[in-house]
Design brief:
It is built from 2 helices and 6 strands; from the N terminus they run βββααβββ. A hairpin with a 5-residue loop joins strand 1 and strand 2. The relative contact order is 0.12. The structure holds zinc ion (2 copies).
Length: 149
């Protein structure tokens, strides 16, 4: 299928939408013509306004879609939560990931670091909970040195 035809364009004067997948056969524009490739003298078939009166509607869809907004907010919240949730041992760099828990120490997956027993110790070096620091998940990509010994 054609996925690289660019966005649909909406006429700002009338409700007509130029769909590159459909083209504009009435004006000899074959299906599959991106809006950018339309001749400069192409006009809106409904109101006869020029290309300059059209706007790409990708942005409009983004702004209108509550789903997208919620996804963005959920992502923001997700980052904020994981920042708190994953803890790194300051001594050896071992990471406590609450999603995994620590089954070999009787810690069920999904147990938040704050909910660990006070006598929890790092399984690698034996450091106490107080030796752990929250991990900054958003810098993990360039902060991998954190896990080096
Ligand atoms: Zn129009
Ligand atoms: Zn440790």
């Amino acid at each position: 299928m054609n996925n690289n035809l660019g966005p649909k364009y909406q006429c700002t004067i009338c409700p007509y939408i130029y769909d590159p997948e459909k083209g504009d056969p009435a004006q000899n524009i074959p299906a599959g013509t991106p809006f950018a490739d339309l001749p400069e003298d192409w006009r809106c078939p409904m109101c006869k306004h020029p290309k300059s009166d059209f706007v790409a509607i990708e942005e409009v869809i983004d702004n209108d879609s509550p789903e997208d907004k919620e996804t963005m907010e959920a992502l923001d919240m997700g980052i904020a939560l994981t920042k708190k949730d994953v803890y790194v041992c300051d001594v050896c760099g071992w990471e406590y990931d609450p999603e995994l828990g620590l089954p070999e120490a009787g810690i069920a997956p999904g147990t938040a670091f704050e909910d660990l027993p006070e006598d929890f110790v790092c399984p690698l070096c034996g450091a106490p909970k107080s030796a752990f620091s929250p991990k900054q998940m958003d810098t993990a990509a360039d902060g991998q040195a954190v896990t080096n010994a």
